[in-house]
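Chapter review: from sequence to fold.
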Amino acid sequence: MGASGRTWMNLRMEEEYYQQLDEDWREVMQIMSIEEEYDYSLHEAWKEANREAGMAYAKKKEIERMIRNNDKLKEDEN
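The C-alpha cell string follows.
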C-alpha cells in the first residue's frame, strides 16, 4: 500500500465480464488501455509457431505423465 491507502494492481478482463460487474466495482476501476482483438491466424509464421507450441505442450504433458507414473511405481515398491 502506498501513502494514498490504495493497492494498485493490473489485470486483464473480457469486456463481457466487466459489463456484468456491479456498478460499485466499475466506479473504483480505472481502465488503462483497451486491446483490440487481432486475428493472428492469417500469418504463416504465427501458424507455424502455434503448431510447434502445440507439439511442445503435448511433449511436456507426456513427460509429466511419465514422471508421475515412475514416482508412483517407486512409492509402490517402498
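Two observations follow directly from the output. Residues 44-77 form the longest helix (34 residues). The two ends are 50 Å apart (CA to CA).
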